[in-house]
Each structure stands twice: as C-alpha cells, then as structure tokens.
Amino acid sequence: MIEVTDAVVRFGAGDDEVAALDGASVSLVPGEVVALVGANGSGKSTLARLLCAMTLADEGSVAVDGIDPATGDRERREVRRRVGFVQQHPSDQLVSTLVADEVAFGPRNLGLAPDEVSRRVARALDVVGLSHTGAHDTQALSGGQQQLLAIAGILAMEPAYIVLDEATSMLDSCARPGMRALVDHLAHDEGLGVIQVTHDPLEILVSDRVIVLDAGRVVFSGSPASFIGGHGALWDATVVEDPCARAVRACIAAGLPEDVGVAPSDAVSWLLAAIGQARVPTASLESVLRALMPRGWGQGERLERADERLVLSRIDFAYDRDACVLRDVSLGVRGGEVVLLAGRSGSGKSTLACVAAGLYEARSGTVTLDGAPLRPGAVGIAFQRPEDQLFCESVRDEIAFAPRNLGASETQVSASVRMAAELVGLEDDLLDRYPFDLSGGQARRVAIASVLSLASGAYLFDEPTAGLDADGRRSLHRVVRACAERGCAVVVISHDLEEWAAEVDRVVLMAAGAVVWEGTPADLSADADAFASAGMRPPLSFELAHRIRAALGEVRA
Amino acid sequence: MTSFTPLGSFVSADTPAARIDARVKLALLLAATVSLFLSQAAWTLAAWAAVLVGVVWASGMKVRDHLRALVPVVFILAFTLIANALALDGHGSIPIAGPVGLDPAGAQRGFTAVARIVILLGLALAVSSSTTPPQLADGCVRLMRPLARLGVPVADIGLMLSLALRFIPIVSEEFFRIKLAQRARGVDFDDGGLIARIRSWASVLTPLVVRLFRRADRLGESMAARCYAESADAMGPRVPLAARDRWVLAAGLALCCALPVLARLLH
Lengths: 557, 267
What we know:
By secondary structure, chain A is of the alpha/beta class. Chain A folds into three domains: about 1-235, P-loop containing nucleotide triphosphate hydrolases (Rossmann fold), CATH 3.40.50.300; about 245-295 and about 545-555, no CATH class; about 300-540, Rossmann fold. In chain A, about 40% of the residues lie in helices and about 20% in strands. Chain A has 22 helices and 19 strands. In chain A, strands 5-6-7-3-8-9 form a six-stranded mixed β-sheet, with helices on both faces. A six-stranded mixed β-sheet of chain A has the order 15-16-17-12-18-19, sandwiched between helices. In chain A, helix 6 links the parallel strand 6 and strand 7 (about 195). In chain A, helix 3 packs across helix 4 (about 115-130), helix 12 (about 280-290) runs antiparallel to helix 22 (about 540-555) and helix 15 (about 395-405) crosses helix 16 (about 410-425). The longest helix of chain A has 17 residues, at about 540-555. Chain A is globular and about 70 Å long. By secondary structure, chain B is mainly α. Chain B has a domain at about 15-145 and about 240-265. Chain B contains nine helices and three strands; from the N terminus they run ααααβββααααα. Chain B has a three-stranded antiparallel β-sheet. The longest helix of chain B has about 30 residues, at about 195-225. The termini of chain B are far apart.
C-alpha cells in the first residue's frame, strides 16, 4: 500500500514560494486503477512524482509498502523500483537506440544477471504487445508504440505500482483504446496499482477510483460513478466536455444501477438490455442518443453565402522524387468557417497544412488566399506545441515578431499585438512578462497569439489543445471560433474528433494523402462507413450512437 | 528527404561484411592501420589495394559511393602529392624553372602517403557501411571493456555514446520543425544583411537549445526513475564471438602481421 499523509511540497523560495501540494493525504492499493484529476497547477503532477520518490515531501510523510523514501538513498531507490514512473512525452524518456536495450536499461541498473535481464525484457515486451519489435530502432516506432516501450521499460523492473503522468495526452486517438486496455490488464490481471494522471474523460470513467485535486489539496476521492453522478458541478469544472460523459449522465438519469459502473460502453449495454426487457422507456434511448450526437455549430445556410477564402486546388506534393504524400487534394474554406481536418497519423494532414500555409511548394496545383497566390507568412499556422517557438524577452515582443518580420509600421504592430492579445484573452499585465516563466496554458495562448498577429485571412491550427486541461481547452475552442467570427477561414487539424466535432462547421477526413470524406459533424455521425473509408476506428461516442440507432430502429419496427 | 548520418553511410543490406561482429571489424580496422604504416614496400601497397577491393565487394557498397567519399579529401591529397614531389630549393633532379624542380623520390613518398590514406579511408568506409551506428557504439564499448579495470568509466562512456546516437536525429528534427514554424512567422532565412541573418537564426537556435535542455531534463528523470544514479554495470551481457567471427579475426590479424614481416624479410 502507498500512504501519503498530510504531504506538503513547496517550490521557489522567499516571497515566491508556492505550495504545489498543501496537506494532501491519499492511499493506494495494488490491483486498483486510480485516476488523479485536476486543473493544470492543482498539484496532481507533484503528487504523482511524490508517489514514485522523484520528489520528496517537505512536510508530511510517504510510505510505500512501509518504506519511507526520505529515510535514505537505499530506501529512495527501492521506492523508485517499486513505483514505476512513465512521463507524458514518449520519445523524451528513451535512452537507447534499440528496443530490447531500452527495456533492459532498468534491470541492468538493478545489477541483475544477464539471464534474468533477458527473461524480464522478453516478458515486459510481451505484456505490452511489442514482442516482435525487440531488434527494431526505437526511433522507428510510432508515438503510441514508444509509450508502450516506456511502460515495458518500467515493467521490466517488476514494480508493484506504476504512475502514468498524462501518458496518453500526446498520443493519437487510435492509440488510446490499446492503452486503456493495457492499464486494465496491468491492474486487474497483473495486480499492479496503476495511478494515472489524466484529463481524458474516458480514462476517468473506466477507473476504479478518482482523486480530484484543487490548489494542492484532495477535494474528492471516490468512485467515478459518484464523481459524475453526485458531484456534477465539480465534474463540469474539472473535466472537458465530452459526448460519452453526457451519455453516461443520461443513462444515470434513466436509472443506471451503481453496480454496472460508469464505463460508457457498459452503461449503454445496460440501457439496451433494459430497453429489451421494457424496464426503461424508449424516450431514454432517444435522450442518450441526443447526448452522444455532436452538437455542431449549425450555421450552415449563412456559411453557404460566404466566399471561399483559402482555396487549395488539385494539390500534388512529394518530399522526394518517388513517394507522393498528397494526391489531387482540393479544399476550399469559406470566411467564417471552421473546418476540422482529421485522419490517422501519416495520412498527410500536417503536410497539407504546410502546403496550405505556403511553407512547402506543391508539385502541381495551386493554393490561393482571396484569389492571390501565397507566400510564407500570408496564412497563419500554429504547429503542435507552438510554445516551443517562443524566444523573445517579453510576451509583447513575441507577439510583435511576426508583423515586424512582414515590415509593418510600429503603429500597425501595436494594433496587431492588441488584436491578437484580445483574441486569445491575454491580460495586459502578462504582456511584459518573460515568455519562459508562463504556465503551460498561458504559454500556449501566447504562442497562438504570436501567429494570430499576422492578421491574416486564414489560420491553420495543428492540435491546438494537446496536453491542456479542461479550462485551457475551452479557452482555445473560443479562440478558434473568435477567428472565424472575424471572417477568417479556419482549419483545425486534430485526431480527436470527439473533442472538435461540436466546435466545427465541417469535417474533412484524409487517408493516404487524399481527401476521402467530407461533410458536417452530424453527417459524420449518421454515416457508418465514413471512418472505414479513412482507415480509422470510429470514436467511442460514434460507435455507441450507432448501436443505439440500430436498437431504436428495432424498437420502432 | 535525404537523411544524413554522421557515422558513415550505413547500407541496409545483408552482405557478408554486415554479418561480421562489429568488434571484429573495428579490431581489424585498427590492426590494418598499424600494419599499413609499418609496410614500406610498393608491392605491399598493391596487396592492400587488392584487400580493399575484396572488402568493398564484401560490404556491398558501390564503387561510386566510395569515390564520392574521397571528394572532400581530394584537395588535401593533391596538396600532399604536390608538396612532396615539388622541390623549391633546387635539389629536384628534373628541373622545371629556376630552382623549382620535380623530385622523384619525393613524388614516390607522396604517392605512398596518398595511397595509404585512400586505402584506409576505403577500409573505414567499408566498416561504417556494413555496421549500424548502434552496433559501432556497442562494439567500441565492448572493446574498451578491459579498461574498466584501470578505472575508466566504460559503462558511462557507452551510455553517452548511446544517448548521442539517440539525440542526433532528434536535434535535426527539432531544428527543422522550429525553422519551419519561424518561417511561418515571416522570418526569411536567406535574405538581409549579416545582423538580420544572425537575428533570424537566433529565432531558431534559442528555442532549440531551450527545448533540448527540457528534453535532457526529462530524459534524466526517466533514467533516475529506472534507478540509474548508482548504476553498477549497465552494459549488456558479455557475448562471445561466433566461430566464423573468430576465423575472420584470426585470418585478418595474420594478414596484418604477415605483410610488414614479409616486406622486412624481402628487403
């Protein structure tokens, strides 16, 4: 058992000192999946690091199976072995170029015999399903596989607990179901205690227990059912809006018994069985279906009258002579419209964005903005983790960088800075801060503002909300919509359809460098074959909606 | 995109040379270097040239690629040859103009030096084209293993090599990613005066360094989480050489010894 009692962890010194954890107490047992939830800055990462002795408590105590890591180096090392730690960024935690060596790193550090090391490597790779990759280059694995590899590296040390610090937040949505299944297997078959720090509503709903932190204190600890059912306001404040969570709530309203749990597929299965036995009215089926449907922006008619501003016509693109990355792609985005560009990784969506921004030159075909051909800087593009591009002395300089590069006068520059800061909701006092001192959510907004200040007619955002908490996401959703409302053509590139379906006007699916489907979010929900054509597995909410629609068809027939 | 690998040009193919253990190849390259400089006679150079032809064939590398690898050193080689062959103080036996003349003995000396470098470069290329960078790093560390008894931190050197190999592609990937992002913010890397250019590159290098430090931090944490700090011996198990590798090693070493010894005896 891990027992944390009244833990206090402080950062900084003197007047700047802040308590990241301020008297938190939790206890965890093997065989249980615990979700650690809270806004950015609530102390959940600090608590996660405390559990695996990456940090020590300033006050209070931690005991892992009776061992206190603060007693000495040997104890701390033993706690680190017993409580594995997996971080957010897959490739940043790999030390080796070969998969098998990577997994062997931990066991070799423990000084184990070569036979024992290779036995553990084989077993760990088998558990995460990477047995076939032993001799591969770690760099050649996908992000999802690299994260599985990081977990294998921990499992090879035979821990009793494993801490996953937002381990899925950087993964493609198609890698997430596999990760959820692995977590379930580790806790319920292998008997490990799994602690996952997460913002993902699905991961929270399928956990055994949820701990919510706020300002360094535990404000809730209990089952996910009592979190979503009994503490609705706290759920809404902490967790991002999600169709599956809405559906679970509708099921609870229809009388979902507690012992079924709140895993969305279990809840829907219960509902369908209950309908079959006529225990609940058909109306609840309709209300759950409504909850699952993407709400969409619903400005169809007004949009049809708007002009297409960003127009890509018959684009072919290749990095070198043989392999074609984009094939005959045509796409027009109207002023005031938000288009979601989705597809598996490697489908060409990020390349298309670079072509649409004038950064890559198409082999054939044309890109125009308001009828004129493009040059770099004419279309604003925010890449993934845009905060990595910050380098100026102040936030103001950072936002002014782009218009200055384009040769704007200082009056125009300050007008652009004001406009961009306002769009992303930056307070005036932040403008003179040092960009590297900002929190994650603030830095993201500054970086987005530093692209918006181009004052362009079209913007592209590549995974703008990756790694942000519910608040950060909501504010980015508003930024995207605000750009469209200024009359810009907006494209969002994301693998997360569930998050964006409600925020966009149109969805475009790509596969193998071509557009394979396009339509409104509502069309997407109704078209069962759309995802198959893009080689994607439909998101859970779409799958569940499909099951319910089929059942409704039967009831009516 | 063409990728650049600093540790030679590995050709992914199942060639005879690729199947030989990296330790054997490295040891033989070292022995060949010593042997080549011990042999004086012209016929030994011819013998080495023949060995090179065999090795190039075994590594499956194209002759054209070998010649291309010589391009950067052509200037130095030509300079070596000319500097040795030309006599500026009048001792040259074939006069050209005034005190400047050609010295045949010097020319021969220059030719020998150039031939040695070309042969060594060819052998080294054959090794790097048939061995992956991780195999090379691993081979180096395993060869250094006896030095651990003298207190050399061989395990740490091995880890450093491995991390360096991991970071090379990461650095170049991050570099291009940030450069692209700054181009999207209107930076023109090809235009403007020196000051403007320095400013442009600062917009890439500053975030690159910050990003690499952050990555290094996380990597350090991931190592600490796997109990690295007090590592005893984080190297892989000892792997004895296969029979074929031992034969190749023995034959290669014998050749390296035989050539200079024969040259001495026949002199």
